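1st attempt posting a full record on here, be nice pls
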Amino acid sequence: MNALSIGTPEQLRDPNYTPGLHKAVPLGIQHVLAMFVSNITPAIIISGAAGFGFGSDAGAQGFPDMTYLIQMSMLFAGIATLFQTIGIGPVGARLPIVQGTSFAFIPIMIPLVAGKGVEALPALFGGVLVGGLFHATLGTVIGKIRFALPPLVTGLVVTMIGLALVKVGIQYAAGGVPAIDQPEYGSLLNWSAALVVIFVTLGLKFFADGMLSVSAVVIGIFVGYLYALMVGIITFEAISTSWNRAAVFQLPIPFKYGFEFSFAAIVGFCLMAFVSAVETVGDVSGITKGGAGREATDTEIQGATYADGVGSAVAGIFGGFPNTSFSQNVGLIAITGVMSRHVVTIGALFLILCGLIPKVGAIIRTIPIEVLGGGVIVMFGMVVAAGVSMLSEVHWNRRNMVIFAIALSIGLGLQLDPKAVQYLPDAARILMTSGLLPAAVIAIVLNLVLPQELSDEATDELSGGFSGRDTGS
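the predicted structure (as tokens):
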């Protein structure tokens, strides 16, 4: 969409500018499309890990629970976005920031719910609430603690998030989590649906522009959905059954699954909130630089962090997952050149409307797991790529290589072989086998305590002669 047709250059850089509705509405919907699949995917993944069922199996146990979690993902992404765009007191950056369910917390949530059904949800949402409140408090000190998370640490953490998730993408593309009674797992039919999504997504990303490129993953999944209908992976009968079982309208229910405080959940969510807060700082800076050509103010950064935490805490009360700013919309603002926060507000209202209509969640639930797998392979791969991009800023001297090597080896190793710590208490075992948390803690601590004097004496031997400023700390 041509920004020049929407307003003057001065208006486009003004967060308080409101284009006419005939222009603002499609721009707002464009922001929603850019994040829609990424926003609902965590709810589907956690539902699957808990054992709620997938795709065309509309009669599976847990159908109402998966639908409800999808519904809450849309509703509270919209509400958290309003916290950012409209604001309440010090809460909110008053910038065009789109909030959505965070991928970063998935490696923490999966061990908490794996195979436990709804019995695991009270502790999960207790962790979301406490983690959200902790996240909000970080707004008071976020500027002072950024030194503890240089590119060496944040790049490692983001890379670990992606590495923890890529296995999920492959399993989904092959037909779900493998089981003895699942002979079709890994079949060519399953993979064909995933590959349709991947090829359509890549084609649109590389050979289209504008809204087609921005919405490539959404369109890819839609085409994959149609393909699944044609080859019989999903049927119209299953879609009709799912549609009929869902209510027309439903308000969120506070503490629907009960409430429980779990040490493992609380520690995990609080530690990840720390990382998520710093990622939000980067997104806010990217929005102000790309859309307005200026640095973000301290008030904007604090307000954005407050909104992240408050949005997550409120979501936890009603059965939603942690929210964070979505980076894909930072790029969208840079492309369109439109800084209007009111445009994003319109998108938020659209998300809220979808979240109040369970039939939307019911239809989303009929997406075959193979089709979703094609989309998440692309998304999770991009998470890894983003982490590698951050790590490219690091000067790979001996000190930084040792920090990275130890953190990655222990974090990834424990994730690959959870039985290595099977005799730890349950809470500690869940935290250690997430992979992400031990890697993050090790990297942060080593980066703070190892002296800089270790940095250069063996650089040529270990890193092939690279030299320059040490950006790892």
